[in-house]
User: What shape does this take?
Amino acid sequence: MNHLRLRVLVPVILGIVFLGTSVALASSGVFGTFSDSSVSSVSVGAGTVKLSWNETATAQLDTTVGPLKPADSVQFVSDLSNFGALNLSTIQIAVAGTNTGSISDGLQLAIDSCTVPWVGNTPNFTCGAVAKIVSVDRPVTGLINLPGSDALTPGGVDHLRFTYRLADSAPASMANTTGHVTIIATAIQRAGQTK
Assistant: This one.
């Protein structure tokens, strides 16, 4: 009777040991599969967005325009510089003025850019290299984008010419008008890229 129990008990014990060993090996294999992963890191750098007009350490440009008669124009040149440490995705200038008349019959503004500093004097500054139109004649109000500006990169300088003109249709009451124009430059940092 004891021999029969021993014969039955030995296979059962061996089966349990074998099953336990199999489970342990399978578990370690699964654990190994899920714990093995590649490691990646992302670096985030800090910097400063800093735009300046004519190396004055201010992003605001104030100009007195006039006196002008209807159809008269005057030009100013200013350099917009990127003194920051970051590449920029966009630059905008916000334009506002006082005593500039109505939107349709008042002071108008056109902007051009040159790859080198403008030469000459108002009202005829000229570009000695490559010039491009930034904004056609428009009222002295609102936001204006500076696409492809040289100031998008750190240390870059955008040489801009501002042409102010009193509309031909301005009423006689605006003859000899003098207006004050404020231009503020703002920028958006270039979006981060996955590496």
